[in-house]
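JOB MANIFEST
job_type = single_chain_structure
chain_count = 1
residues = 127
[input]
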Amino acid sequence: MKFNCLRQSLLQVVSLAIICTGFAQVSHAGVIETSVLADQEDRATHIARVEVLLASAEVARQFEKLGVDQALVAQRIQTLSNTELLLLQEQMDQQVAGGDALAVIGTVFLVLLILELVGVTDIFKSI
């Protein structure tokens, strides 16, 4: 009887051990390179900068005018590659708010000069 009880206990322990081996968790650890970590931080910085630029009121109005959903824009920004994200940020930084001021001033001056030469206005007294 003692042998039967010992045998049954041993059978239960072995059965439990076999069942539990299928649930073993394996974790793989590795060293994170500095360049990978720096790239992730740079990407987060670029995404935040682009999102700030796109969150402005003027850009939001333009998106509404074109029928573009802000959530879709945010989702697409997340899927951009690092190169595309950097290029987008550079292009947005180069854009001047309100357009090219020199072109506007030049156009106004040219219109005033033509009106002066035609005789419609008398702005430039010496011409």
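[summary]
The radius of gyration is 35 Å.
Residues 41-92 form one domain.
exit_status = 0
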